[in-house]
Amino acid sequence: MPYQPNMYDSHMHTPLCKHARGPLSAYAERALQVGLRGITFTCHSPMPEGWDAGLRMTLAQLPQYVDMVEKTRAEFAGRVDARLGLESDYFPGLEGWVADIHERADFSTILGSVHALTKEFKARYLNGATRLDYEKSYFECLALAAESGLYDCLSHPDIVKIAHPKQYDVADHLDTIRRALDRIAVTGIAMELNTSGLNKSYPEMNPGMVMLTEMARRGIPVVIGSDSHDAHRVGAAFDQALANLRQAGYDRVSYFLNRERRELAISDVYLANMQPRLV
Q1: How confident is the model at residue 205, as a pLDDT?
Q2: Above pLDDT 70, what percent of the chain?
Q3: Would the pLDDT of 38 be above 80?
Q4: pTM of the prediction?
Q5: What is the Cα 67 distance to its own chain's centre?
Q6: Which CATH architecture has domain 8-274?
Q7: Which distant-in-sequence residues (6+ apart) come within 8 Å of 233 by Cβ?
């Protein structure tokens, strides 16, 4: 097992989001197999009726989600610390809706996501815009999400690169990214290193090494998440993620419990002799 038992996977989903598979118990069982101390379920937040409805739970399903996680937490007590979280969308103008959702349960972690591939985001930022302007708008919204004060951590913070994977080049946006990260760093929010990017159309983690290094230079805390939509991916590629963090200049990794950030020394959770591939 590549981890000590104090490591958490801070991003995973449930079938309520309509594109994840398997019972919550399977995710917890997988966490046991890979030696994780805990997991946080972060299913996609309810949004106003009709908003990206095929990829998230409804508002009426939120109590069901809370109950599902609580049952898993009780079942695995003393073996895996299963926590209730939320992956909560950020979109300018909906801050009030989001703030209300966050008050409806005792969430342990709230991830803030800018989903640039939704029809709502594209209608506002891509309609008539160039590809580069559309990508730039994503990083602007990422900074706005941090400044909203609604979230603990910004998830998959360069996910826009999968919109046009053959054309995307981080060099086109370095100035924009640096300005956004300057604003994000001031807020004290964490950012995620999301391992699921390895399986997407632009096959590297989110963020890639260039942006991750810029985050490290600004002292922005980093949380690792698998973004699992299937139990077999819990803890996936965490060895590579920890190696990337070290390469970028980090010596600590974070996670959240009861919306309070905790830190671990990477040396306490990483077996250096594994020599994982940097991606």
Answers
A1: 98
A2: 95
A3: yes
A4: 0.94
A5: 22
A6: Alpha-Beta Barrel (3.20)
A7: 12, 196, 226, 227
Read off the pLDDT of residues 102-127 as tens digits, 9 standing for 90 and up. 999 999 999 999 999 999 999 999 99
| Burial of 29 from C-beta contacts in 10 A (0-12 / 13-18 / 19+) | middle
Residue 172 near residue 130, CB atoms below 8 Å: no
C-beta atoms surrounding 23 within 10 Å: 13
Structure confidence at residue 5 (pLDDT) = 56
Terminal-to-terminal C-alpha distance of the chain: 21
CA-nearest of 98, 106, 228, 248 to 156 is 228
Structure tokens at 191: 């950012």
Closest CA to 227 of 40, 37, 24: 40
Which pair of tokens denotes residue 273? 């002799």
Alpha carbon distances (Å) from 254 to 7, 185, 211: 9, 15, 18
**Identity at 30, one-letter amino acid code:** R
User: Measuring CA to CA, how many Å separate 76 from each of 65, 81, 159, 228?
Assistant: 17, 7, 32, 19
Residue 3: is its pLDDT beyond 80? Answer: no
